[in-house]
Amino acid sequence: MNRRNFIQTTVAGSAIPFMGHAMQNDKPKTDRVRLGFIGVGLRGRNHLNVAAKSADVDVVAICDIDPDAIKRAQAVLTRAGKKEAVAYSKDPKDYLNLLKRDDIDGVVIATPWELHVPMSVDSMRAGKYTAVEVSATVTLQESWDLVNTFEETGSHCMILENVCYRRDVMAVLNMVRQGMFGDLQYGHCGYQHDLRNVKFNDGKQAYGGGVEFGEKGFSEAHWRTQHSVDRNGDLYPTHGLGPVAHWMDINRGNKFNYLTSMATSSKGLHKYIVDKGGPDHPNAKVKFKLGDIVTTMIQCENGQNIVVIHDTNLPRPYSLCFRAQGTEGIWMDDNKMIYLENKSPKPHQWEPFDKYQKEYDHPLWKKFESDAQNAGHGGIDFFVLRAFIESIKNKVTPPMDVYDAAAWSAISPLSELSIARGSTAVEIPDFTRGKWKTNKRIFGLNDQY
Amino acid sequence: MNRRNFIQTTVAGSAIPFMGHAMQNDKPKTDRVRLGFIGVGLRGRNHLNVAAKSADVDVVAICDIDPDAIKRAQAVLTRAGKKEAVAYSKDPKDYLNLLKRDDIDGVVIATPWELHVPMSVDSMRAGKYTAVEVSATVTLQESWDLVNTFEETGSHCMILENVCYRRDVMAVLNMVRQGMFGDLQYGHCGYQHDLRNVKFNDGKQAYGGGVEFGEKGFSEAHWRTQHSVDRNGDLYPTHGLGPVAHWMDINRGNKFNYLTSMATSSKGLHKYIVDKGGPDHPNAKVKFKLGDIVTTMIQCENGQNIVVIHDTNLPRPYSLCFRAQGTEGIWMDDNKMIYLENKSPKPHQWEPFDKYQKEYDHPLWKKFESDAQNAGHGGIDFFVLRAFIESIKNKVTPPMDVYDAAAWSAISPLSELSIARGSTAVEIPDFTRGKWKTNKRIFGLNDQY
């Protein structure tokens, strides 16, 4: 993309004209952080809950088009002893009024996927530290929009990839960096989660009870399911890919080069509708493009391969199927086992990971274990929002930055492209424009980020 | 390939002119089977051991260029109470004299990979039932050679894929055919076996003790390792792919359509040489083409995907990483767990496979468990040779036929091609030339085959 296209795109894509403001990294440090929340549905309220419990955070404003969500969000605040926030709920553009406030340092965006980039771009142009839920972007152009907006404005955009803070994958990160796997050669990961009762519900409850989606669906069924109708690709790559990208120093000494994706036929969602709603339910006529399982292979600059599985349409136990393998050992998530050539007691035999989990627990977990305990998803929601808050306080780049958001999320549209072309290989753009060669690690360096 | 090329190839490729003989399926049934063995090294003697213990088998002749292997093979026979076989050991072409004998019904070939097809073609042209070790073929042309030779001569060629008889994958086959996984959508498999001490030894023992290969290596190190020098692809796909192909009725109502493969860089073998032999060992200068891990995705005609991993250069516990997943459930090898939507007690939760293993044990295993006990690789070597013997006795097509041998083995050269072309998608030929549409299942039908 040339400079001319870039300006057209970002100007066209944003409702907020960029008038120039000091780069965030040049601003003075602060002790308190003032946050605004765009989207306070189920996911947004998870983050709000962490913020409400943080003594150094003021929640200034919240925004959602659903008045019930606003009500529930205010209750989260008051239950935690904070005062109610100013609410923006007038219409889908009311978030722009939230962004105009000059008493907000950072904005947390937890809205439907297709709103992530327009809102993030507006937030960055308004000079806010911006945190956006996963996947950050839906299209390749959107990944460029995020990067270009950051480079124009100096406003940071952090992808809220909570799984990067999962205790086991952080211990493995610790071990990878200490060279315990030798040279890392292979990563395996994915999003394997039976989402059928998330994609369909009765329009009243968030999970199951019916086979409605879209206009008649509630919560994620209201907007997320349509992606399974319209798209065949890895719709949700970052939960798996984020941790592996950190292990492999993607964008910092390494990069994604190309990928190829393959999809099975699509049977699971239609079957679910027929099984639960009957063959005459109107949704039994819907054709879903999304293959039941989508597998993607990524070739990295430094010679590693990453396999990413997307598996959300079939009955199965939850698993992100992590695997880290190098020239001196292998760890696997599914059996919770490890084998290290120079440490494991018996050759060719697994040993339980527990011992290593304790010994190589990441400094962040050691320090904040008790704070994390009551946050969502086993504590990882605490760490991911905390990292955003700390970045704002210290006026530094967040530990998962706009280039991570762009590159990890781009696997989704690129996997669609590969599948549409018969699984041909597709180049993955270098969103850092060469800076991966000199960029230094920023994630999980110590007990601060 | 047109008819003209086909004739040139098969005639040029074979040392035995085909003079015509009755199609094997038209010959009368027999009660006893007379076998010849070409290649009685470690692998060949596994098969010889099963044959020697079979009351209905006479081992007429054996062939190997290594006199020590001949001696050990004769000892296998006499220990089992059989008389010594006629030995062919003069030179690399002496196997042709074995094939000229008219008192041999079937020939078992367990030689280096690159000899499989030349010897199999000669054996088929000599009118013998032919059994060949895995992988059956090295090149795509060789897969066609096997098929064309069968179609010309009517002589069967069975691929000795013992893992197809593994007790768990056969129970899963049983369950797949009973529809317990619903429509099967996804298969995962591979050959994940740290072969470093097979690829390198001291020239005296078969496993380890040094970093020699080729001229100075013994047993498999003598010939197998060179493939890791010369080729980057899935060198050994059939142990994983055979069972999955049976689950998915490949060549019988379904077929492989195309694949794409990806390889990590190659570090493991070089590191092993340096670690064990020192940086000054001459083999430390060898450049290995084979990526440490090669992953292949296969798109099937009926919409399924298969992922195949080849992982033989790094330290790791052995695993063929099987996974069978359909619209109603999933089974995994690595954690030995299963989840069936309509049977498992708790939603979204694994249960141990043991119970299902007992309940859905394949009829073959139920009937022959005690016979299998002393055979190699946990009993599967018994079943695979037994199937060959029974096919000869009954003058029927063996349960893994020449089309299976051709298609499964072809994944190896096709994966090389995909990797060489930057992981682009590569078409997988239909070796049945359309007969997959009407071919019926032949494997694991009952307690006979």
Question: How is the topology of this model organized?
Answer:
Two copies of one chain form a homodimer.
Chain A: H1 3-13, E1 33-38, H2 42-52, E2 57-63, H3 67-79, E3 86-88, H4 95-100, E4 106-109, H5 113-125, E5 129-132, H6 140-153, E6 157-159, H7 167-177, E7 184-192, H8 196-199, H9 220-223, H10 225-230, H11 238-247, E8 256-263, H12 268-277, E9 293-300, E10 305-311, E11 323-326, E12 329-332, E13 337-340, E14 351-352, H13 354-359, H14 363-372, H15 380-394, H16 402-420, E15 426-427
Parallel strand pairs in A: 1-2, 1-4, 2-3, 4-5, 5-6, 7-10
Antiparallel strand pairs in A: 7-11, 8-9, 8-15, 9-10, 11-12, 12-13, 13-14
Helix pairs in contact in A: 1-6, 2-3, 2-15, 5-6, 6-16, 7-11, 11-16, 14-15
Number of strands of chain A: 15
Instruction: Supply the number of structural domains of chain A.
Output: 2
CATH superfamily of the largest domain in chain A: Dihydrodipicolinate Reductase, domain 2
| Order of strands, widest sheet of chain A | 14-13-12-11-7-10-9-8-15
Coarse shape of chain A: globular
**How many alpha or pi helices of chain A?**
16
Q: Find the biggest chain interface.
A: A-B, 51 and 51 residues
Radius of gyration of chain A: 21 Å
Unreliable residue runs of chain A: 1-12
Could you tell me how far the N terminus lies from the C terminus of chain A, measured between alpha carbons in angstroms? 33 Å
Helix content of chain A: 25-40%
The profile of the biggest β sheet of chain A is: 9 strands, mixed
Subunit organisation of the chains: homodimer
Look at the structure and give the CATH class of the largest domain in chain A. Answer: Alpha Beta
| Beta-strand content of chain A | 15-25%
